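Sample entry (400 residues):
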Amino acid sequence: MTRTDLLRRTALISGASVAGPALAYWLNRYGFEVTVVEKAGALRGGGYPIDVRGTALDVVRRMGILPRLRDAHIDLRRLTFLDGDGGEVASVNPHPLTGGVAGRDLEVRRGDLTSALYAAVRDDVEFVFDDSIATLDQSGHGVDVTFHGGGRRTYDLVFGADGLHSRTREFLFGPEERFHRYLGYCFAGFTMPNTFGLRDELMMWNTPGRAAALYAVGENDDVHAFLNFARPEPPYDAFRNPEAQRDLVASVFADAGWEVPGMLAALRDADDLFFDTVSQIRMPRWSSGRVALVGDAAYAPSFLTGQGSSLALVGAYMLAGSLAGRDHAEGFAAYEDTTRAFVTLNQDQVGEGDATLFPTTARALEQRNDMLRNLSAMPAAAEGRPAHSALTLPEFMPVG
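Predicted structure, serialized as tokens:
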């Protein structure tokens, strides 16, 4: 491939959440002509709070959006844990538990992060909303793509940044079940009126195998409600049926105390219900031919690690930089060689920090509660969890 060819490459990215716009930004920096296609009709605003930690902070700093994200930072003051009767077990500073560092790591609404990423790249990249990839064909010299909206175009490279349930991954590698690692829990998330007087705090009720949480951000009229429960196998029959999801959650929490009855009532009327399993994606390789995956589509770590958005940001930076000055085969190989160890280390954080919050037995719950009581007396950590910063970003040189 000649230097001129490297300068003129075209790329299609499926997905406009976190990994997609971040990848678009860096590919554009390295000379690609980029199109992002997103099945939603517009950027998704609002959303639950997410973390940006460790190496990912360097990515957003290099993108120039760190000041904007600092302005949007949520200063979560405390986590309060309750027993089955609603009595307080412990109230703790969030950072020792999550591995975050006060004053350095970020927590922002998901919509604030996606808006900042979009603003950084929208003038240089084509965004196509309300459409998605229907077929991919790599039999020619590029990737022939047909869209559900009826269009047809050819790109030099295609990238799947379309999340845990990636259709791009399914096109390339087959059914999700081959790569899906179920972690034994399901969850439902939605918003409901903040009638509890909560502000910048999270309250979590637990019994063995069940958790209910209310998370209040700022002075909003709504809180994020969260219901999590252990289940031996994924409820496949409920995945595409919101009413079945509501029925399943209601049955699991039918005898629960505290504020759970009111949460179940709000769940029935919620128009923003999000239901899924707690799971990871583990793949032996992240590319096939001229198509590669990034973020949750390739290596979802699960919310138990708190690292989904950070891995997406770091992965996007490493993928684009690995392609600078290289053809796709060399670039994709370099992407995996330099990024996989960092990804695996962070996926393996399941069982640390946040992942201990949902015990499934009475004994494990009491052990967790003892840990929380001890933690409440500890000061905030000066250093974050080592896995979060285990990769130092290399400097990639733009082609030209």
